[in-house]
Each structure stands twice: as C-alpha cells, then as structure tokens.
Design brief:
The chain is an all-alpha fold. The chain contains three helices and no strands. α1 packs across α2 and α1 crosses α3.
Length: 49
C-alpha cells in the first residue's frame, strides 16, 4: 500500500500507470481493487492536507 501511495502522491501517476509499476514488483491483483484502493488513498490525502 505504501508503494501505491508513493506512486500516486509523489509521481502523480494514473491508476493504470500505478498498476504497470506495481506489477513489475509482483502484484497479481486486478485493476478494480487497485482503483478502489487508490480512491481511498486519494481521499485520505485530500482530507489530511
């Protein structure tokens, strides 16, 4: 989850690009669960600023 947060926050990547990056590190999950997780992370980042 930290890698996903880092890619979204630090590199401003789309969910599709995040998926490509984390698959390089062995992620085998699908797009939908990643998208849902990314929305939670984005919501947290927005509301904690």
């Amino acid at each position: 989850m930290e890698q996903i947060k880092s890619l979204i926050e630090g590199h401003n990547l789309t969910t599709v690009r995040v998926l490509e990056e984390i698959r390089k590190n062995g992620y085998t999950g699908g797009y939908t669960i990643l998208k849902d997780t990314a929305m939670i992370i984005l919501s947290f980042l927005i509301f904690t600023q």
